[in-house]
Amino acid sequence: MIQIHPNLFVGNTADCELNTPDVAVVHACKDPCHRRAVGYKGNLPSTHPHYLVHQDNNHLYLNMVDMEDEFAAHFTDPIMQQAMAFIERNITERPVLVHCNLGMSRSPSIALLYMARRGFIGNMSYSIARNDFKTIYAPYNPGNGIATYLNRNWEKLLTF
């Protein structure tokens, strides 16, 4: 778990096991966190009310995978909107940990977007934000799907 800004941390699956009540946690991984929280194996039907997002107190569970197809925005937009709102609601009152499986792609991408939206790093383009963010969080290595999504949707992501 690495602190990248006051009250904002990025980590991996091992960090989510801390389960401290005074920390808000964004679990940016389908497996194991979203599956465990919602209680399913395999795939969840897209009609399920918690298909994309499930919140339980100070934990936000995201059914987030690194998609590379043209439908990525259809699923990722509401996930990112919920993640941004959750961070905004919590960050002034408690530490926020954003984690995914390895702490290299999905969770740091969420943290990068939050920081760009708030003007803590350059936000004129995803490329500028990515370069600024890598000086803060060197392990950042976005997968092709999340990088393509952020690049294609950058202006929209800064404003929703």
Polypeptide structure, described:
- This protein has one domain (2-159): Alpha-Beta Complex (Protein-Tyrosine Phosphatase, Chain A), CATH 3.90.190.
- 44% of the residues lie in helices and 15% in strands.
- The chain is built from six helices and six strands.
- The chain has helices at 13-16, 30-38, 72-90, 106-117, 126-136, 144-159; strands spanning 2-5, 8-11, 24-27, 53-56, 59-62, 96-99.
- A hairpin with a 2-residue loop joins strand 4 (53-56) and strand 5.
Task: List strands and helices in order, with pairings.
Layout: E1 2-5, E2 8-11, H1 13-16, E3 24-27, H2 30-38, E4 53-56, E5 59-62, H3 72-90, E6 96-99, H4 106-117, H5 126-136, H6 144-159
Element string (H = helix, E = strand): EEHEHEEHEHHH
Number of contiguous helices:
6
Using only CA atoms, what is the Rg?
A: 14 Å
* CATH class assignment: Alpha Beta
Low-confidence stretches: none
Distance between the termini: 28 Å
Summing up helix and strand content along with how strands pair, one would put the structural category as alpha/beta
Biggest sheet strand line-up: 1-2-6-3-5-4
**Fraction of residues in helices?**
40-55%
Report the major sheet.
6 strands, mixed
Overall geometry comes to globular
* Average pLDDT taken over every residue: 93
- Tell me the name of the CATH homologous superfamily: Protein tyrosine phosphatase superfamily
What's the β-strand tally? 6
